[in-house]
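Hi L.,

You mentioned the student needs an example of a multi-chain input paired with its predicted structure. This one should do, with 669 residues in total across all chains.
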Amino acid sequence: MTERTVVVASRVGLHARPAMLFTQAVAASGVPVTIARSGGAPVDASSILFVMSLGVPHGEEVTLAADGPQADRVLDELVELLATDLDAEPSGDATQAGS
Amino acid sequence: MTTAQPGPPGVLQGVGVGRLAVVGPVACVRPAPALPPDAPLLVDGEPAGPEQVHEVVERAFTEVAAALREQSAGATGTVRDVLAATAQMADDAALRSQVLARVDAGEPPVGAIDAVVQMFAGMFEQAGGYLAERVTDLRSVRDRVVARAMGLPDPGVPHLERPSVVVARDLAPADTAALDLTHVLAIVTELGGPTGHTAIIAGQLGLPCVVRVAGVTDLEDGTVVAVDAAAGTVLPHPDDAVRDAYERRRTAQAALAEDTSPGATSDGHAVALLANIGTAADAERVGAGAEGVGLFRTEVLFLERVQAPTVEEQADAYAAALRAAGGRKVVVRTLDAGADKPLAFATFPDEENPALGVRGYRLVRSHPELLDTQLAALVRAQAATGATPWVMAPMIATPDEARAFAQRARAAGVATVGVMVEVPAAALRAADILAEVDFVSIGTNDLAQYTMATDRLRGELADLLDVWQPAVLDLVAATARAGRATRKPVGVCGESAADPLMALVLVGLGVTSLSAAPGALPAVRHALRRHTQQRCEEIADAALGARTAPEARAAALALVDADVRATLAL
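Structure written out for the whole complex:
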């Protein structure tokens, strides 16, 4: 079992768009990954419903875990994703862009 | 559908919003499928075995996710994101595998789907805040999957293939957001009220809208109806004469819209005609028919957020709106949250009576930083664009509140400061309020709600909420009188400014500007141009002299120029 701990950087926490991008990345990796809040039970990280229901706010630590030969590479990629403000991408500014 | 075709029923009566009229086919928004949890899945008339159920339910999830993704791809902005997130819920591996495990164990499909959705909904509700609001999306996935699996028509807003009259029991904001507006001719609902969100959004988009139409959801998909927002009627199967009359009205309305000269009475008394907006995109759509923006509702930037937008983000949004206004006047209203517009980070979830609670300007008591950040952002936008917006606070009740707001706003660098008059106390003491600020703007929707002690969201009380209620007119008159005495501007930015007849009354009372949905301005401009200021004052006196709301409206109407009555179908 490989584990990584990372602080969620997105301003809105692990909700909405950030949760969507994260769970899509997990599913695309093809490796079963779990995510847990500190002291909480791990849940399937590819499920947007489970990930959203964790309710992780901005600035809180989560622990990712996976098994197998790909685990290190996949977890490193996912850690990098969570350490980015996923809500700051251009399409998040729809209100101002006037679309 | 196979039900027998009923004979053509007569005119259905409701409450109209706006003045427009249109003829088109009905597109029904379907309610959630009402099925018992143990409803059997039938294949060729026989109850299906677990293997068949497994296959059907799995396919239903896949098809629902695909349909949502397709809808999302065709949408823009917030709607696109909401639909994409909903599609991902339908695609969720955990949701699907848990439902299928129950189905494999022999549970009937509806019960299996409901049990798993309920588990996730419970987790969302327990987390509260933003997640609790997402339960609506989760339930809409449930409704779609159940309908698809059981062979029923898709619930929710239909995909419109031709211009249609959208008919619903009621429309949630999410339903309205999912509408393909290029194909919506009109919106008709069985519930809702004339100042509810559907009505306001319809006004914003310039769509005819009729609410509280009993029996309208009994109409079959595709039935051609004539919708008249001015009369509040829906007529099924209109004949050629009716169609021709509607077409003539549409042509007359279009001709009115070509006149973009400044608002004034026939004897040249100027009345600024302004537009209500919620976003910079709205500001871009405001055409030459408006002399500026009389109400910029800034809360749109804050809704559906977990945290308040930063000063930079707000400054960018405000600057975009100021630039779109292109040097015309812009009146910005500071955050009006609370009551029917809750915010995750500012409102008190346990208020028993939120319309009378900590809302609007009152948030300064618990969250002063929200107002200060907003004022700082407005001043930055002012510096970035060279525009000088007027800034006003909502829900002011006392002169001291007006003074405190004015001091904060002026200290931040706002040049022209005002407050909304929505609370009867502020209307009664308007002279004292005006002594503290540069202008006031009357919000007639809330003023009627508070004067008549009638919840804006209770459609069945629409008669009490009527802005023609003489008590409400008295308070508007008191405010306008104070404006004349102090020589300060008194605007009206509620929906009553959109009614050309009421506009004549308001101008007669001394109101100096009218702000409404842009689509309403041509009719208001036309009505003003055909009456003198003195005639408007006589119309106002007639309305004030009436005993009831219908009598006030009738008394005003009796003095209106006959040509104007005919052209505007008053």
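You could point out the following to them. Chain B is about 45% helix and 15% strand. The domain at 270-568 of chain B is CATH 3.20.20.60 (TIM Barrel).

Best wishes,
N.
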